[in-house]
Amino acid sequence: MRLVSALLKTLLAGELRAHPGRVALSVIAIAIGVAMGYAVHLINHAALAEFSQATRSLMGAADLEIRGPRTGFDETVYARIASLPQVAEASPVVEVEARLPGQQEALRLFGIDAFRAVAVNPGLVGQPAAKEADGEPQRLDLFDPSAVFLSPAALAWLGLKPGDTLTVQTGLDTVALRVAGSLPAAGEGLRFAVMDIGAAQWRFGRIGLIQRIDLKLAPGVDANAFRRTLPPLLPAGVAAFAPEDKLRVTATLSRAYRVNLDVLALVALFTGAFLVFSTQALSVIRRRTQLALLRALGMTRGGLSRMLLAEGAAQGLAGAVLGIVLGLGLAAAVLRYWGGDLGGGYFPGVRPTLHASVASALGFAALGIAASLAGSLAPAWEAARARPAQALKAGDEETVLRRLSTPWPALGIIVAGAALTQAKPVAGLPVFGYVSVALLLVGAILLMPRLAHWTFAILPSVRHAVPHLAFAQLAGAPGRASIGLAGILASFSLMAAMAIMVASFRDSVDRWLNAVLPAQLYLRTSDTGDTGFFPDAERAAIAATPGVARVEFARANQILLNPRRPAVALIARPIDKRHPEARLALTGPPVEPRAGEPPPVWVSEAMTDLYGMRTGERVMLPIAGRQVAFTVAGVWRDYVRQNGAVVIDLDDYQRASGDSRITDAALWLAPGATTEAVAERLRERLAQRAGHLDITTPGAMREAGLRAFDRSFAVTYLLEAVAIAIGLFGIAASFSAQALARSREFGVLRHVGVTRSQIGAMLALEGALLASLGVVAGCVLGWAIALILVHVVNPQSFHWTMDLSMPWRLLAALALALIAAASLTALASGRRAMSAGAIHAVREDW
Prior knowledge:
Layout: H1 2-18, H2 20-59, E1 64-67, E2 73-74, H3 76-82, E3 87-98, E4 107-112, H4 114-120, E5 127-128, E6 147-150, H5 152-158, E7 165-170, E8 173-182, E9 192-196, H6 197-203, E10 209-210, E11 212-217, H7 223-228, E12 239-241, H8 243-286, H9 288-296, H10 301-337, H11 358-385, H12 388-391, H13 408-420, H14 431-446, H15 448-457, H16 465-476, H17 478-516, E13 521-524, H18 536-543, E14 548-559, E15 568-573, E16 600-604, H19 605-611, E17 618-623, E18 626-636, E19 645-649, H20 650-657, E20 664-669, H21 675-686, E21 694-696, H22 698-712, H23 714-741, H24 743-751, H25 756-798, H26 808-833, H27 836-840
Parallel strand pairs: 4-9, 6-8, 15-19, 16-18
Antiparallel strand pairs: 1-11, 1-12, 2-10, 3-4, 3-11, 5-8, 6-9, 7-8, 13-20, 13-21, 14-15, 14-20, 16-19, 17-18
Protein name: Multidrug ABC transporter substrate-binding protein
Subcellular location: Cell membrane
Keywords: Cell membrane, Membrane, Transmembrane, Transmembrane helix
């Protein structure tokens, strides 16, 4: 055992000294893959943990939370629930997303009854600031209608201190609130404000309405059993939540996005495994005689396999350790300078702190080692089964991958991958979609030896020496060529698939924005928050503005259909029931309800997946505390709300709800009127209130939407670039190792009169031909993977569909760059093999 261990150390040290560059590339590739995966995991985990902690903090000691729609529900429900014998304490809460003039993000503001909240959620009870004269806190500030208390994070964010003024928008007006103190019990990084419940109802037009009730149950009351008795006592669209339900809904909001980012980050590690395979396979080919000699001297097959696997494990371990360190640094930098959102918009206002666990670090380190071992497995298995007597002879290198020449295992894997695309999601995640992508990649790579043989065997015969030698080499050694093809295929196919998917998504979003923005000018009371709205007088002033031919007003709201799922958006706007496609991006023909049927609604694609709503069906929606029947008249695409959205005609909504608030306006201009002139007239008519109004054109909204799209895909672009870089490393390492493995061949060619420049041209041509085949195969494979991403992974993850778009210019540019890089890399890698040592290498056969 000691002899084997000493021999292993000697061989490892010798390989590292002889070829430190290729070993370093393998280590770096594994390190980058581990670092990206670990950093994304740490950032997502930190953001989710902080968000979950914020949810727990806001619920306090409550056993249950009764929550309704954003518009609220009748406050008489509070008296009915608080009088139940099972309830020890009940605290009513008004909750709004308050828009702050000059700020991009809204401030979460709670209205509470301090006497009730102190027993259920004392963290929401403000601490009044001490008065300078006598140093005593002003307790009555808790009930002052102009007083507000801010959490430490909100004070730091807004740059305020007790005694300063906080300006909040309500309607198109503003309300000045005095910062009366702080909320010291608020969770770290949680930004919110608290004021008296009566003042909140008055200031924000919520008289008689509350958004939630926090319940603390009597001793001995089973929370789950009590919750099951509540639905008959609650209005439609109002439900009771346990703390774990709230956390589950919070996690569900971002789960698909987080999982897709994790998988994409691990693509770099997956590509790194192919780099290890290339370097290890070519290392085995180059050392085939040495390994056969070890077998002849008595080393067993198992011992040889363990030795080669130990080489891969050592590289994986070094890469894993380096990757964990890099991942920690990258995650800490992202959380410090950019927060934990990663462009997805799921954790606004959260500044999480890094929490690294030993278990997660060991898990990603194990993934790095496993990837390296996976890349070493096939070369080790083949080397251990080689016959020593045959392997000691020169010219036996091509037999290493001869077993892979049969196409049937590869075709079977590809068929299995294609079949898995029809599988349903698992727990709302496209697990089988990910597996099918991996199987297609593995199957295509295993098919490369046969594809290389078929392709290069039909190359035309030429008289010129250089192309003749290049063609003969590729046709006669398809197994060795396929090793170089593996890295090219893996990197380019994944690159092409991501490029096609992103281009398809972006083009679909662009067309969708053009379809849903038909007007020439748009007015919104707020891009964020729910405290802005158009009063009646302002709506009349907008409609009477010179240059405005027609105005359509809209209302955005939310309804709760399932307590275990996030709320669904309810959009009320004028819709032509005969031609709804004029306002909605419908996915199929609409259905016009017949006389006597309930009024129509149009649901987004997510509603069909999450709630099973189909065109022509009758559905019940909770509107203003009661269930109202509607007919699903069509399904439309929505790239904003992955949790579902329902569009209803504005008149139908106002009749059912009695809610006359308006939050958006679309303006069609009269002939000859310009958007600039009409916007200026609107500002003049609305006078001081125009500063609290967003006036924009559809072009600007489209540009903003596409910027938000690019921002949300920024991490995707980065991870894709990393995978491409690793693939290029693999190409360089592969060609370098192949050139050294062919030193005897170059020596013979030099002896028969072939010049070094001709050998260089031959290598450059081989690299270009291999890269061309890899690019063509990678483009086909990338297109197949893109089909899975577009038609399986995205619909199962985010519940929306898109049309396939091919970014031909980008793919062509990438293909040409890759072919040029492969050709130059092959030429550069052959310089060492074309040295004087290559001439003397033929002595081994004399």
